[in-house]
Specification:
- Keywords: Calcium, Membrane, Repeat, Transmembrane, Transmembrane helix.
- This protein has helices at 234-237, 250-269, 307-321, and strands spanning 3-11, 19-27, 37-38, 43-48, 56-59, 62-63, 75-80, 87-89, 94-97, 108-116, 124-134, 142-143, 146-153, 160-164, 167-168, 177-180, 188-190, 196-199, 206-215, 220-232, 241-245, 276-284, 291-298, 327-331, 345-360, 364-377.
- The protein is mainly beta.
- It has a domain at 37-134: Immunoglobulin-like (Sandwich).
- The strands form 8 sheets. Strands 16-19-20-13-26-25 form a 6-stranded mixed sheet. Strands 4-11-10-7 form a 4-stranded mixed sheet, with no helix packed on it.
- The protein starts with a strand and ends with a strand.
Amino acid sequence: ISGYSLVVQARDSGTPPLSSSVTVNVDISDVNDNSPVFTPANYTAVIQENKPVGTSILQLVVTDKDSFHNGPPFTFTILTGNEEEEFTLDPHGVLRSAVIFKHMVSTEYVLCVQAKDSGKPQQASHTYVQVRVIEESIHKPTAIPLEIFIVTMEDDFPGGVIGKIHATDQDVYDVLTYTLKSEQKSLFKVNSHDGKIIALGGLDNGKYVLNVSVSDGRFQVPIDVVVHVEQLLQEMLQNTVTIRFENVSPEDFVGLHMHGFRRTLRNAVLSQKQDSLHIISIQPVAGSSQLDMLFAVQMHSGGFYKPAYLIQKLTNARRHLENVIRISAILEKNCSGLDCQEQHCEQSLSIDSHSLMTYSTARISFVCPRFYRNVRCMC
């Protein structure tokens, strides 16, 4: 406890008794009676041979129970094990290489490291750090090509995480880093540590081929990343049909079924090869394991097929569609729960283009806006 605040009252013996109060603050001065504590108590680390001088090997973590002026900054010293000066230790507790290590020369080093606090007199503690030298990387990283589909309203894309690169390496201790060619950084970014791809706001309609690579420090491997951006037209929302699937998650639909179902759906509803199928959004149905897919079909001439026409086509082809995935319902409008007949139910659809949903798998990522249905009885 660093201090106490007492309220002291003096009361006389008169009639009536009179009193007054005063606040007494008592500060407890800290004595430097705690040594620094390493977490964990001892360390093990690895470094690959042929890494450049200055490679970070380990970050020491030290705490002190004393007050701040008796704790950090800490002074770090390598007491033993560094007679040939193969290592350096900076003021922040980062252990780095001072030579280029060779696995054939030595495979293990044991360092005794001391940490001193800033109190007077100083308190010290020590830890042991075991550093193993392993062979340099012999396997190239492998990465899965990624295709990303983004659906957004006209010129209204807010940006955000749109997918993640999945890469592996057979060398157990390899640390993978991801890079994007500089000329594409005005539109996209890639997190160098975890491979997440971030799109900046305002993407235009079209196809983008990203020049991404993954490196293990020795080998650098290119990754195929293609981004398709489709901007919705307001007219699409007035001509949408919903297919409701049974027992499927958005990620499973995107990763396992979307390509095959899109192809089967095109064969079912397109009257001409030049017509265009637009998947507007996919969205879980609240409180269930169902999934809604919203789509519209644009004619080659520019207009859109009416929902009633598409539903007729879908009904005729439902058996073929269910060869890909089980369908729960085909809806032009969803008026369930309203006490009115279907023909007297009116539905309006709204898109929230600033509330994007990203469904990402290893090979495919689908980014789409959240949609809302507003229904009312017209009777």
